[in-house]
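User: I've been trying to design a sequence by hand for this structure and keep getting stuck. Would you show me what you'd pick, starting by listing the structure so we're on the same page?

Assistant: Good idea, let's start from the same input. This is the structure you sent:
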């Protein structure tokens, strides 16, 4: 029976993140890049469920943890996903609205 991460307890989420890390490491050893990426995405979503969406504010800009120099402006929050626009190294904002798990957002840019 499959559960959604929203149904997991914090302890179960941490166990799941641990399992996904192991899977990613095994996939990396086998050279399976796509499997590594899938595991990493699942880890980020599971990790987002251990965080509070209330810690993030709409219309604020946050650093992106996995992409140095890139930022993200939140338009709105839906569950553990921040919807908004990526800002590149030249401070140009993307035209494409996208959703990111809040676990990918770093410090607020002042």
């Amino acid at each position: 029976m499959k559960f959604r991460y929203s149904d997991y307890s914090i302890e179960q989420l941490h166990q799941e993140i641990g399992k996904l890390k192991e899977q990613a490491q095994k996939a990396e050893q086998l050279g399976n890049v796509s499997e590594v990426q899938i595991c990493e995405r699942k880890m980020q979503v599971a990790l987002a469920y251990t965080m509070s969406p209330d810690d993030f504010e709409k219309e604020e800009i946050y650093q992106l943890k996995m992409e140095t120099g890139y930022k993200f402006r939140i338009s709105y929050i839906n569950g553990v996903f921040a919807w908004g626009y990526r800002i590149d190294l030249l401070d140009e904002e993307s035209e494409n609205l996208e959703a990111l798990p809040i676990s990918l957002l770093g410090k607020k840019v002042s």
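That's my pick for every position. To get oriented when you compare it with your attempt: The two ends are 45 Å apart (CA to CA). The mean pLDDT is 95.
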